[in-house]
Design brief:
The chain is α+β, with helices and mostly antiparallel strands. The protein is built from eight helices and 16 strands. It has two domains: 120 residues, Rossmann fold (3-Layer(aba) Sandwich), CATH 3.40.50; 178 residues, Tumour Suppressor Smad4 (Sandwich). α1 packs parallel to α5 and α2 runs parallel beside α3. The longest helix has 17 residues. The radius of gyration is 20 Å and the shape is globular.
Amino acid sequence: MRTANGHALSYSQVVRALLVVNPQATTTTPAGRDVLAHALASDVKLEVVETSYRGHAADAAHQAAADGFDLVIAHGGDGTVNEVVNGVLRGGPRPEKPMLGVVPGGSANVFAGALGIPRDPVEATHVLLQAIEHGTKRRVGLGQVFADVIENGRWFTFNAGVGLDADVVAGVEHKRAKGRTASPFLYLSVALKAYGQLVRKPQHFTVEVPDEAPFDTDGMVFVSNTDPWTYFGDRAIQLNPSTSFDGGLGVSALRTLRVPTVGRYIAQVLATGNPKSGKLVRRDDVGYVRVKCEDPANLQVDGDFLGTTTEVEFRAVPDALTVAL
C-alpha cells in the first residue's frame, strides 16, 4: 500500500482517512453511513464528519489536507464530491495532497459513474477497500472556473455551464428548498419552463476557445470535463463523447434556440449521443473556454448554482487530482 504522496507503507503505518458524509443526500442513510464507516475502519484510521452547512465538506477536506491525511472520502451526491475536491485542492494541486475516495449517495453521481465506480454504496465501498488494500489510484484532470461571482476560482469534476443548464440548476435548487425531491421529472419540468423563458427573452453570449475567432451563441454554453455530461435517470446524456479526464474540456453551444433546432439537437443527444448540426458549435478538447454575456447570466458547476455573471472563464487543468480507484 502507498500513501497519497507515493511513499510505500509498512505494516506499522496506517492510512489516515476522513469520511465526509452529507446526511441530506438523496440516498444517504444513517444505517448506510454506519456500515460504510465500520467497513473502512477495519482498514484505515478513520475519522467521520457529517456536514451541517453549505461549504462544510470543503472546510473539512481542507483541514484534512492541512493535517496530513492520506485519503478523504466523499459520501454524498455530486455536490458533496465537488466540495471535497475544492477543499482538498484549496491552494492548488500538490503531490502531498490527499487522495479522493468516492462512495455515491446522491441521485445522479455523475463523477463516480464516469470513473466506473458503482452507484450502489456497498459495491462502491468494496471497490474503495480494494483500492486501499492494493494501493491503486488514478490521476484525473479537472476543470476550473473563474468569474466575478467566485473568489479564487472553483474546481469542477464533470460539467459546468452558463445559461440554460444553470437556469435549470437554480430552478431545481429553489424547488428542493421548498421540499421537492430531486428526480428526472423535476429536472425536466424546470428545464421546459427555463427554455420557454429563454425563447421569450433570449440571452446572447460571445464564446472564445483557443486558436479560433470568437463566435456568438444564444441561451447556453455547456462545458464538459468528461463524458457523460450528466444522467437522466439511468440514461447517460452525452454532449461531447470524446471528452475525458485525460484531455481538455468539451464545449457545446447552439447558435439559436429556435424550437426546430433545439428539437433536433435533443433528438440527436438521446438517439446517438453524438450531436452534430450546422447550428451547433462543438469542440471536444480545448484548454479554455471564455464566455461574455450581454446581460447577467446564471452560472453552475457540477450541478451547484453559483450566481450570475457577465464574464466567465473555464480552464482545463491536467492531472489535478488523485482518486483511489
